[in-house]
Amino acid sequence: MKEIAIRVATPADLETLLRFEQGVITAERPFDPTLRPDPIQYYDLPALLASPQAVVLVAESQQQLVGSGYVRIQAAKSYHLHQQYGYLGFMYVEPGHRGEGINGLLLAACKQWAAARGLTELRLEVYAHNQPAIRAYEKAGFAGHMLEMRVAV
């Protein structure tokens, strides 16, 4: 089994992170008919890398980046029990490395970062028909909570 290291991303990783972002978009495009044609971007990666309110993590195998994810501190709604929570995003594993437990390692590191900052809850969004992603998140302990619905007019 290959050794996988999880570390904080640096600006030197930006080129690979931008490629990973396009991988996320390509994977999610079939689930979202509202996305504009390419090229699009989901994230402001330089800002995330610089933010003290977020951490971008990467998975590294044999000195190659093979996965990513971030957690950022979000303000909760005024009616929630918690004041802040960790919002997860940019969860990506290179296709040739899927099934190696990398997503679980990234999620565990995100949980650890959030807990170290006193956060008691993590949240994320996933497309309702993206069953592989849903299974991966459920395996890590996540459960469905709210389903956002839409209709074109």
UniProtKB/TrEMBL annotation:
InterPro entries: Acyl_CoA_acyltransferase, Bact_Acetyltransf, GNAT_dom. The keyword Acyltransferase applies. Keywords: Acyltransferase, Transferase. It holds the Pfam family Acetyltransf_1. GO terms for molecular function: acyltransferase activity, transferring groups other than amino-acyl groups. PANTHER family: AMINOALKYLPHOSPHONATE N-ACETYLTRANSFERASE-RELATED (PTHR43877:SF2), AMINOALKYLPHOSPHONATE N-ACETYLTRANSFERASE-RELATED-RELATED (PTHR43877). This is GNAT family N-acetyltransferase. It comes from Hymenobacter glacialis. The lineage of its organism: Bacteria, Pseudomonadati, Bacteroidota, Cytophagia, Cytophagales.
